[in-house]
Write a structure and sequence with these properties.
The protein has 292 residues and is an all-alpha fold. It has one domain (2-289): Farnesyl Diphosphate Synthase. It is 68% helix and 1% strand. It is built from 15 helices and 2 strands. The protein has helices spanning 5-15, 24-35, 41-52, 61-78, 95-98, 101-121, 129-143, 148-159, 167-187, 198-225, 228-231, 237-241, 246-250, 252-270, 278-289, and strands spanning 88-89, 92-93. α2 crosses α6 and α10 (198-225) packs antiparallel against α14 (252-270). The two termini are 15 Å apart. The relative contact order is 0.12.
């Protein structure tokens, strides 16, 4: 994945508004939130998935940027005092701390619409109108009430409740809040392939769903065992807030076993793909072994 970090950084830089353009402070906040240190897992998944389908990498830049902008917008809003009230993100002050709450909200709003503008009009994607519509539909679904927004709502509701949630409810929270955007990142490049067969489609959906769950379980584990400097955010924050997490419900050992099981199923789905899927396999391995 790391070979694509410089590429996505350059692609984002050229598609974000200049910090010198009015309103300058808002544009500065947008660039601060997007261009700071980040693993860029979701853009990397876009590139890896596109490679598996033989899509030219230049056609994937716009999709990768749109996905990362949606992710950045969600982080800005999740960090706000009304949500998770975090003051550290990617090793530095969160957007609302560095700027102010109103500017942070507007930065998130602007990033969300910019993502869809890119999907609709970026010439490098080289997509038909029908393909662009499918890309917009999938990313918007992953971002809305049946995706990230809904997942965040359920997460906040569980945090503010005194009732212990069930395993099924925990799965729903994370499938929507985290998994939906990861699934979209993996599935969107397939819309640029004109002859996707049913077997490829089904196995791509299985892989994207399973690795999305594994990603969140590892995130929860790292919040328990990691340190703030390595994570780039406040370690143990989920526990302090009383958030619903896999370790809180299952314990660390059972959480690791569950993560590994979802990872195994994800890799089995990739066995139906040609050797080009090696990049997706490598990313899946990184997701379950990462330390931040």
């Amino acid at each position: 994945m790391f070979q694509h970090i410089s590429r996505i950084q350059s692609a984002l830089d050229t598609r974000l508004p200049s910090a010198d353009a009015n309103p300058q402070r808002l544009h500065q906040a947008i660039r601060y939130a997007v261009l700071g240190n980040g693993k860029r897992v979701r853009p990397a998944l876009v590139y890896a998935s596109g490679l598996a389908f033989g899509i030219d990498i230049e056609r994937l830049d716009g999709i990768a940027c749109a996905v990362e902008m949606i992710h950045a917008y969600s982080l800005i809003h999740d960090d706000l005092p009304a949500m998770d009230n975090d003051d550290l993100r990617r090793g530095r002050a969160t957007c609302h701390i560095e700027f102010d709450e109103a500017t942070a909200i507007l930065a998130g709003d602007a990033l969300q619409v910019l993502a869809f503008e890119i999907l609709a009009s970026d010439s490098t994607i080289q997509a038909t109108a029908e393909q662009r519509l499918e890309l917009v539909k999938l990313l918007s679904h992953a971002s809305g009430t049946f995706g990230m927004a809904g997942g965040q709502y359920f997460d906040l509701a569980a945090t503010n409740s005194n009732k212990e949630i069930s395993f099924k409810e925990l799965e729903q929270i994370h499938a929507l809040k985290t998994g939906a955007l990861i699934e979209a990142a993996i599935r969107m490049p397939a819309f640029l392939k004109n002859n996707l067969n049913e077997n490829e489609r089904i196995n791509l959906e299985i892989f994207s769903r399973e690795i999305g769950i594994a990603f969140q379980i590892q995130d929860d584990i790292l919040d328990e065992i990691g340190d703030t400097e390595t994570l780039g955010k406040n370690a143990g924050a989920d526990r302090e807030l009383g958030k619903a997490t896999y370790p809180a419900l299952l314990g660390l050992d059972k959480s690791r076993e569950l993560r590994d099981e979802h990872f195994r199923i994800a890799l089995e789905a990739l066995e139906q793909f040609p050797t080009e899927a090696e990049a997706l396999r490598d990313l899946a391995q990184f997701i379950v072994e990462r330390e931040q």
